[in-house]
Design brief:
Length: 172
């Protein structure tokens, strides 16, 4: 379920309550109805290979629900004991919450060049301001952007020093 969430950026309730009738494998989409969305608006999300692969695993295990717990019943809430165990196994800090998967998904997409507008549409946010709260940029991601000044400084510094020297001569 966490892998599906990282692939789609959905809220926990939308993942846990996922039903087979919402999924169109041939179109590679998943439809969420207004009554199931925080915004109260419908959302159709594209399904990437990660999501499709996760959805293929439970095919045929339950006629209605996609994700089941060990007693073959639909998952209705997070088992915190299993969640903490999974975090330990993955080497992730204990204060990492399920909702942080949505933040991670958004940040990964932005850090890989996706626009905030596209992210807004994919994540079902109502405003770009909300998207910005989710799409955190790690400082190391910004290094390549900061390094652009190196090219400017390298090519223009020689000219700049010549300009400064010329001005000094005029002022003397």
């Amino acid at each position: 379920m966490a892998e599906y969430d990282l692939g789609t950026g959905l809220r926990q309730a939308n993942v846990f309550d996922l039903r087979w009738k919402q999924i169109a494998f041939q179109r590679r989409t998943c439809e969420y109805y207004p009554e199931n969305m925080k915004s109260g608006k419908p959302l159709v999300i594209p399904l990437n290979d990660t999501a499709i692969n996760v959805l293929a695993r439970p095919l045929g295990k339950h006629e209605k629900y996609v994700f089941l717990h060990s007693r073959n019943q639909p998952v209705k809430s997070l088992n915190y004991k299993l969640w903490k165990k999974a975090l330990d196994k993955a080497g992730i800090e204990k204060d990492f919450h399920w909702h942080d998967l949505r933040h991670t998904w958004a940040s990964w997409l932005v850090q890989n060049g996706e626009s905030l507008y596209v992210l807004k549409e994919m994540g079902g946010w109502q405003s770009l301001e909300m998207v910005q709260k989710y799409a955190h940029l790690a400082p190391d991601h910004l290094v390549k952007h900061a390094m652009k000044i190196d090219n400017i400084m390298t090519s223009d510094c020689h000219n700049l020093s010549q300009q400064i020297n010329q001005r000094r001569k005029l002022l003397q």
